[in-house]
Write a structure and sequence with these properties.
seven-stranded mixed sheet; 11 helices
Length: about 270
Amino acid sequence: MTTDEKARSVKQWTRTPCGSSSIKSEEGSAKFFEDVRKNRYQSYAPWLKKLIESQKVKGKKLLEIGCGMGTDLLEFSKGGAKCYGIDLTPKHIELAKKLFKINGRKADLRVMDAEKLKFNDNKFDFVYSHGVLHHTPNIEKSFSEINRVLKKRGKAVIMLYSKKSLAFLLKVILYHGIIRAELLRKSISDILSEVIEEDSEHTKPYVKVYTKPEVKTLLEKTGFKVEKNYSKHLMNAKRSRIIPKSILAFLERFLGWYIVVEARKL
């Protein structure tokens, strides 16, 4: 990231910590963290908790890149992983430390740039990153760093925003770009920075969307073998109830908001 892009990202998630925009309870309280957890796994993305629980992490050293307030990392800790978490935003790390303390669990939590991981080579068995690295301009550098800190045959699970998603096509291209005619005066990148993240109109963090082949190519270029490459998350749980499950699964497969990649270090 450039200095300006880093500053905008930190400003965004200091102002609105990831996953907190709809939470009314006192920030940093036990109720606050429980409300964040319920919103994330019951309303926003029930599929995400299932994915986390499906990973075999017991006894493994696990690094989460962009751990936010620590919600997912805590689930990995409960699953028996020895947890490390990094985030560019100090406020996130501050809150993540509170979360782990409230739950009586330990994790190594640090402010750190995903493009410059301050860990030794071959340290981790597993690296996880959900909805983070699409905010990193030099994503190839981040992938190289992930490869470096993973042990041989170590696993990475990475989720990025999809260019071929319903959210991007309808919200960014159709609504903002065409109906509101913003493409006449703004680039796609500008619109993404203003509307994708909650309350981001004034902070404008860097945001990029990818295709599955692009992600696969980048990972293979940086020393990974891609084992799975699929789409998830068409819409939140409440909205998805109006669509039959069979149709939802079909649409999600092609138009999901997240590209989920599971890969191994060669």
